[in-house]
Amino acid sequence: MGVEQAPTPKGKQAAKGLKQAAAKDERKTEADTGRPLKKSAARFEERSKSSDGKSAGAKQKI
């Protein structure tokens, strides 16, 4: 849920904190690996392959 979509002030604060924590973790991971993380569809494909070496498309064909 996005910060703007949260129905209560407490929810907005929680969403903002989660977004900041995710950004911090992403920066840390990028610094550790020495390369930027892939975004959107490329990232989905990378995560899919990392689990078992098969792409998402190959998994669906089975």
In summary, what is this structure?
Residues 10-21, 53-62 have a biased composition (Low complexity). With 62 residues, the chain is mostly helical.
Can you walk through the features of this model?
By secondary structure, this protein is mainly alpha-helical. It has 3 helices and no strands. The protein has helices at 9-33, 40-52, 56-61.
Q: Roughly what percent helix?
A: over 70%
Shape: flat
Find the count of extended strands (DSSP E, 2+ residues). 0
What structural category characterises the helix and strand content? mainly alpha
Main pleated sheet: none
How far do the termini sit from each other? 33 Å
Using only C-alpha atoms, the radius of gyration works out to: 16 Å
Average pLDDT figure: 77
Low confidence ranges: none
List the total number of helices: 3
Q: Helix and strand succession?
A: HHH
- The fraction of residues in strands falls at under 5%
Region (Disordered): 1-62
Biased composition (Basic and acidic residues): 22-35, 42-52
Protein name: Transcriptional regulator
Biased composition (Low complexity): 10-21, 53-62
Q: Which SSEs are present, and which pair or pack?
A:
Blueprint: H1 9-33, H2 40-52, H3 56-61
Key phrases:
62 residues; mainly alpha
